[in-house]
Amino acid sequence: MSALAAVRCFHCGDALGGSTLTARIAGCDESVCCRGCLAIAELIAGAGLIDYYRLRESSGVRPESSAKADDRWEALNRPEVAGQFVRSSGDIAAVTLAVDGLRCAACSWLVDRMLQALPGVVEASTNAATGRTYVRWRSAQLGLGDVARCIADLGYRPHPLGDGSAEAVQQHERRDALKRLAVAGFGMMQVMMFAVAVYSADLAHEVLDPTLLKFFRIVSLLVATPVVFYAGAPIFAAAWRNLQTRTLGMDVPVALALALAFCASIYNALWASAGEVYFDSVTMFIFFLTLSRYVQMLVRHRTVGLSDALARQLPDHAHRVELDSTSDVSVFALRPGDIVLVRRGEILPADGELLTGQAHIDEAMLTGEALPVSRHQGERVAAGTLNVGHPVQLRVLAATTGTTLSHMVSLLQRAQTQKPTMARSADVAATRFLRYILIAAGLTCAMWLILDPARAFAATLAVLVVACPCAFAIATPAAISAATANLAQQGVLVTRIDALETLARIDRIVFDKTGTLTHGDIAIRRCVPVGRLDEPECRNVAAALEAASEHPLARAFVRPGDPYVAEQARSLPGAGVEALIDGRRYRIGTAHFAAELRGSVDLAADARSTDTVVVLGDEQDELARFELHDKPRGTAGSAVASLAQMQVTPQIMSGDSEAAVGHLAFQCGIHEYRARCTPEQKLTHVQTMQSIGHRVAMVGDGVNDAPVLGAADLAIAMGRGTPLAQTSADLILVGENLDAIPQAVQLARRMLRIARQNLTWAALYNFGSLPLAAMGFIPPWLAALGMSLSSMAVVVNAARLLPRHRLPGWRLP
Amino acid sequence: MNILLILVPLSLALVAFGVWAFFWAVGNGQFDDLESAGWDALLDRNE
């Protein structure tokens, strides 16, 4: 075991944070950070799948708190719910699941093996590239819920996909593009073979046998035709669409040059004996364009669709209360006035008024508040939040489109349309350049028509070929693709192709608190013993008491190997737990609750925040005070320091309390922070910064962050964040390693430098050769060679951005 | 050089076959996931 492994969790790779848990793996005790990781590691080892740890390329996924998963999978076993997703034929059921958290091929191998070990599973295949698992099983032996739970037990998040059509469309698009790429590639190589023969004869001042030349040309034509009409079809289609909408895109002059060059080549190959042919230029151009578009498409396919994200945020069904029974209905069937039951661990299906006396609701997704809040009868609760306490009933006030959640989505959509247009300036520059080329070609044509009509066509074509912005067109995409591949290895997924350009220019970075700078898990920050027991004793007693509690905070206390056992445990909702340990009566909970046991009233305590301070007491004394907090990520401090060095000012904006945010800001070395922000306030703040000229990046993970993510110049979402946050993100931190952010900024800046070098070189080449071509000085073979070489130079230069050596990590899809 | 008149069409035929084989492979899902298959061979010792 390496030194690194000793301080990091064996399963998820996070800092151990004082955990003493160990998992027995292959005869060695390996340290793990939490019970979830322990369970997964033992599950994997128990199934004889230890190879996963040997061969994986990146750390496993830290499991979510168990409360979130509880009944969800059981519900999927019910036929009326499963029916939405499962396709049945005979007694075989099949489903496609989107699995979040797959990081490398070893992950998908693990999922496959675990599923195949389930009795009744006929087939399980996971595609690491798309993150989809296809499972078929005998429905008599197994339910959809069992399949989903099996995946969830490994720490991944499965989402059954009801409608496979979007997936099928993407697959079709990928396969189609790959075919076009292959045709263009094969064609380019063949045509180039003949072209090189002809060029080298020219260079050696030898005269090729005219019959042979004609033969070469006709063969080139045969090969180039499918390249132009099959591989090049999307280019012509896009150019046609551009013309119809009267916009000038890159495709218009490209298509024009291709069409002209191809038509002239056909004419020269078949009927004229003197003119040049440009089949080599045409096929190479199409190949390079197809290649860069293929890479862009792969990246685009990794992003989540908006409607998909909403679907993942809400549960699929709700328990509607009807007279004396409940029935499961789709959330879309809910109407205002319906009464629904929400069990512990379930997500609220609609906005509603609470009918039950008290409820504990985790609103982190909407407000960013880390701790669950208490809601009382008659209060309004929001769809998408999580019931972490006892089962509750609520009367639906607004369902689906009327909910707070969908308000959040519309806020996001508005923010996205208001996105700064800086990213589009590159397009504007390119369009202007394209216009110049078209004008230059037109002028050349006109000039030669006056001087010497016989040479007009050749010269015009030479201008279009030589100035054809081939190097120009791939200058930036090549640099971006190389940098994207590099970032993917570091665990940063680029979802919008021009995001890197923005990333290089940011000067403000705003962090959300919960789940971004912190893990989003509650832990004990400090234990202050105030009575007769010392600190370890207090922790042990507290652990025994809280083991009997179902309160969400309890899991911060509970640890294995606790020497005490609590008897006659009694938990009071909203107050705490009371139990006997070794004959002594203890209470843990709110200060008031603990004080009651010794017959006094702690009035002062009620003024303090009862949510983050938990008091332990017995019948005589108060024994200890526990301060709870959300554990900051180990990489937060170093990431913030590196960013500050790069002149990127970090800030925190959070919906959490002033004290919690301030403390975290201090810990991470951040000077500017804002607490108790609503999503609207966050949005306004970011827009204010933008209005005074700052370029703002926002890092977040929750639904409440989504609108701000949409408005920021650059949005970075955490890999485990909500799908909604990810849809508005330009970058996704798959590895959740905050250090990757400064690394990405650095790489993006290097990318921008290299892209500029490329653009300068391409522009020099294009503008330098254009007048010469217009004057008829450049023979077409030299034009084509120059174009190839200039493109090569650009690609080689961009290749410097590729990762130097293979590090364990992520690859492009 | 007359040999080219035979060799060139032959090479074209080979390319056409190559493209056809590639299309078949793509259609068959061979390129959908380039990672997992390689790992399967490494890991599947138990079966």
Report what the structure shows.
The complex is a heterodimer of chains A (813) and B (47). Chain A is α+β, with helices and mostly antiparallel strands and 813 residues long. Chain A has six domains: 3-55, no CATH class; 66-163, Alpha-Beta Plaits (2-Layer Sandwich), CATH 3.30.70.100; 168-298; 427-491 and 746-813, no CATH class; 492-518 and 634-736, 3-Layer(aba) Sandwich (Rossmann fold), CATH 3.40.50; 532-620, Calcium-transporting ATPase, cytoplasmic domain N, CATH 3.40.1110. Chain A is built from 30 helices and 29 strands. The two termini of chain A are 31 Å apart. Residues 1-5, 65-69, 303-307, 416-426, 605-611 and 805-813 of chain A have low confidence and may be disordered. Chain B is mostly helical and 47 residues long. Chain A binds chain B through residues 48, 51, 55, 104-106, 108-109, 112, 125-130, 171, 174-175, 178-179, 182-183, 186, 190, 209, 212, 215, 219, 222-223, 811, and chain B through 1, 4-5, 8-9, 11-12, 15, 18-19, 22-23, 26-27, 31-36, 38-40, 42-43, 45-46.
Strand order of the largest sheet of chain A: 17-29-28-27-18-25-26
Helix/strand/pairing class of chain B, anyone? mainly alpha
Overall mean pLDDT of chain A stands at 76
Strand content of chain B: under 5%
Q: What count of helical segments of chain B does DSSP give?
A: 2
Q: Strand percentage of chain A, roughly?
A: 15-25%
Largest two-chain interface:
A-B, 31 and 27 residues
Helix content percent band of chain B: 55-70%
Instruction: Give the SSE string of chain B.
Output: HH
How many whole angstroms does the radius of gyration of chain A measure? Answer: 32 Å
SS field, number of helical segments of chain A: 30
Please tally the β strands of chain B and state the result: 0
**Averaged pLDDT of chain B, please?**
80
Which structural class matches the secondary elements of chain A?
alpha+beta
Q: How far apart are the termini of chain A?
A: 31 Å
* Main sheet: strands, sense, barrel of chain A: 7 strands, mixed
Q: What is Rg of chain B?
A: 18 Å
The end-to-end span of chain B amounts to 57 Å
